[in-house]
Write a structure and sequence with these properties.
The protein is α/β, with parallel strands linked by helices. 43% of the residues lie in helices and 7% in strands.
């Protein structure tokens, strides 16, 4: 119905209907907006994690641009798992650990292996490889024919046992190590006296601790390519016992074993020493054990 020829007249009932429709439209718009902001549902609080399984530490580290934790990396690769298994065999359970100083200074002392004998160049020896990899200020003292109890010379008459050499190094106050790696035992096998070798090993470790209070000592037992390795069981047992007596970590290359009948031909230089590849292999195996011992 119209009035005075104008537009259609809107009754009171129609105004009420239009107002109700407007209210319903506003409510519907609000619900839609809330749903868009929270896809989980109107009554469910929005979370920070995506739906599905909660990602583990590796996923979070990758998302944040940070390196994955070592545990996640090891668990994720078959090769790393094999490395851990090999290292566990090299470092017996219950070994003392090494707590790395804030500023490590390293001394590696040993026999002809530490001197790099058998490698193409001296600096291709295992000890030099290790020192380069660790990157610490280092001193490498290798002398062929010597040991914990064997002083060198054809009849053990050289007077160059490890303790003697450590004492001489300690007199130079310009070099003060706080980490010591003692490698050896091959030449001590000539003694054929396990008790003497055990005592000499423990005494050498304790002497180092007197010369450099607070120094941490790791012992790397005897090793050699086959068939020479077969003759080192007694010396290895004695050196290991001496290290245990002095409560020093012992890396057991013999029992692992690092050198086997299968790999020795490729690592053998002269029947007694590793070649360049053998020294690189020794360095690799040592560093695996070092990683298991340090914290």
């Amino acid at each position: 119905m119209s009035r005075n020829g104008g537009g259609p007249r809107v009754t009171r009932q129609e105004w009420i209907k239009y107002a109700a429709l407007l209210v319903l439209a506003v409510v519907a718009f609000g619900v839609a907006a809330l749903a868009l902001m929270n896809p989980r549902g109107v009554g469910e609080p929005a979370g920070l994690l995506p739906s599905g399984p909660v990602p583990g530490p590796t996923a979070y580290a990758a998302a944040a641009g940070a390196p994955a934790p070592a545990e996640a990396t090891v668990a994720g690769t078959a090769t790393a798992g094999a490395t851990v298994a090999a290292t566990a065999a090299t470092v017996p359970a219950g070994q003392p650990k090494i707590e790395l100083p804030a500023r490590p200074v390293l001394l590696i002392l040993g026999d002809s292996y530490t001197a790099g004998t058998g490698a193409g160049r001296e600096d291709q020896g295992w000890a030099y490889d290790v020192a380069r990899t660790l990157g610490y200020p280092s001193n490498i003292d290798g002398l062929g024919g010597t040991g914990f109890a064997w002083g060198g010379g054809a009849q053990d008459d050289g007077g160059r046992e490890y303790e003697v050499r450590l004492r001489e190094i300690s007199r130079d106050r310009r070099f003060v190590p706080n980490l010591l790696i003692l490698q050896g035992g091959q030449n001590d096998a000539q003694l054929n006296d396990p008790d003497e070798l055990k005592a000499a090993t423990a005494q050498t470790i304790e002497a180092a601790r007197r010369f450099w209070p607070g120094i941490q000592v790791v012992v790397l037992g005897p090793s050699a390519p086959q068939p020479l390795a077969d003759t080192l069981r007694g010396a290895n047992t004695a050196v290991r016992a001496g290290a245990a007596l002095a409560k020093a970590p012992f890396i057991d290359a013999y029992e692992a074993p690092w050198f086997t009948a299968a790999n020795s031909p490729g690592f053998n230089a002269d029947g007694a020493h590793p070649n360049t590849a053998g020294h690189a292999y020794l360095a690799q195996k040592f560093l695996e054990s070092w990683a298991a011992l340090t914290k």
